[in-house]
Amino acid sequence: MTKLRCAVLDDYQGVAESLADWSRIGSRVETRFLATHSASQDALVDSIGDCEIVVVMRERTPFQAELFARLPKLRLLITSGMRNASIDLAAAARQGVTVCGTASNSEPPAELTWALILGLARQVVPENNALRAGGPWQQSLGADLHGRRLGLLGLGKIGRKVARVGAAFGMEVTAWSQHLDPARAADEGVTAASSKEELLESSDIVSVHLVLSDRTRGLIGAPELRRMRPTAYLVNTSRAAIVDRSALLTALREGWIAGAGVDVFDTEPLPEDDPFRSAPRLLALPHLGYVTRRNYEGYFRQAVEDIEAYLAGTPLRPLT
Questions:
Q1: What percentage of the chain exceeds 90 in pLDDT?
Q2: Which of 99, 159, 205, 319 has the fewest CB atoms found within 10 Å of its own CB?
Q3: CB neighbours of 140 closer than 8 A, spacing ≥ 6?
Q4: Angle, to 10 degrees, between the axis of helix 124-132 and the axis of helix 107-121?
């Protein structure tokens, strides 16, 4: 019997094969694991054009209508998580491709948000670099969190977890989104800001936890960044397009704000010559929010389950 072919994309850490039992489908599916990101659509088609099954990691590789049309053999596309804005589900359906997802934990991005906040507030990276290089002993004054205001743009699953940690640090926590229910916020011990502008003007830390949509794209631009305090920090572990890229670079270079912590970018992996690699006042990470062992074990084990279910004629966790 001829085996189906499966490609697991963007396995940057080279761990996908070891974190799940792929032998469960080995008699019917030949699986290959691709650690290198395909920089162009042509390269991607050359790499996976013979595959009936593809497993993608979050939104690292977009699947839009043009790509589906170039992959006539593709029948099953699996994404980590149950939502992936970079997959055109309507195009997949037209092409006869079943799209399935996996569970995803919300704790890791909330934890990483605090890694960025603490790293910025206590100047962890500059102090570490100075210590290792034999530089000055203590060169910064840390920013206190206790008694300061944490402003959350979005109070969903991740935002609520971030809010609870802020309260534990003794921070005053406020939140805003276009449809935030003040009573729901109060249940979380959070004060609903009267407006986005009020939140930006009054917060010492502003952290973004919104879903990217037409309403939130470019939500934070130059006018919003100028409203922030010059001593305030902006943290974005959500989606890059929510914050205007050029405006943020200008704000960092000109000192409109004290700094920013960013885990998401418009183009990933970030090009070697991208200005974010050298921007001042920036603590940047390579989209690590969801990258933890527990999450990855869930993603790849459930991907195997999705393939098994598809082969049995009963797709599991379908998105189309």
A1: 99
A2: 319
A3: 122, 123, 126, 127
A4: 60
Q: What residues are annotated to the active site?
A: 239, 268, 287
Together in a domain, 132 and 220? yes
With 0.90 as the threshold, say if the pTM is over it.
yes
User: Does residue 237 sit in the same domain as residue 255?
Assistant: yes
- 125-155 per-position pLDDT tens digit: 999 999 999 999 999 999 999 999 999 999 9
Q: Is residue 316 included in any domain, yes or no?
A: no
Per the rule left: phi > 0, alpha: psi between -120 and 50, beta: everything else, 107 is: alpha
Q: What DSSP line would sit under 279-318, residue for residue?
A: -TTEEE-SS-TT-SHHHHHHHHHHHHHHHHHHHTT--SSB
Note whether residue 217 is domain-resident: yes
Each residue of 38-68: b (16+ CB within 10 Å) or e? beeeeebeeebeebbbbbbbbbbbebeeebb
Q: What is the CATH number of the domain that holds 15?
A: 3.40.50.720
In this model, does residue 313 exceed pLDDT 90? yes
Query: Which residues lie across from 220 on neighbouring strands?
Result: 243
